[in-house]
């Protein structure tokens, strides 16, 4: 009878862990995936539209955020500050999913975002870009290598510094 009890415990534990995929992110794209190409219009008429493929050969940090999502907004600000200060070899592309351009403009003013590649997608969660990057489980950021392959996801400013020093 004692063996039956232990067999039951082992089977129970195995059944609970069988459905858990370790090291698998809960949403969005994964490290090793090629980032989908996209084209986005500039926030002002001063710059031309950006096409991700045009940045091939350079390291790119894609930062997806919205003013109503405090965590993604803070992450965007800290990453922008790091790149502005000591990482000229990485191009940041910051994309907000605020539905109102006025909210976006006020947010980048308050947050002092000065990147020339800061965009707003006013279709918000209905945009093709939002769907292509599978952001339905939360905003994130991706570090891409020169071939557009995701080499890091959801990185902090400190982790970004470490990745760039590692790369060279």
TrEMBL record:
The family database entries (InterPro entries) matched by this protein are listed as:
AhpC/TSA, Thioredoxin-like_sf, Thioredoxin_domain
Q: Which domain of life is it from?
A: Bacteria
The signal peptide here is none
SUPFAM superfamilies registered for this protein in UniProt: Thioredoxin-like
Q: Gene3D superfamilies in the record, alphabetically? A: Glutaredoxin
Boundaries of every Thioredoxin domain copy: 29-168
Name of protein: Thioredoxin domain-containing protein
Query: What is the source species?
Result: Bacteroides nordii CL02T12C05
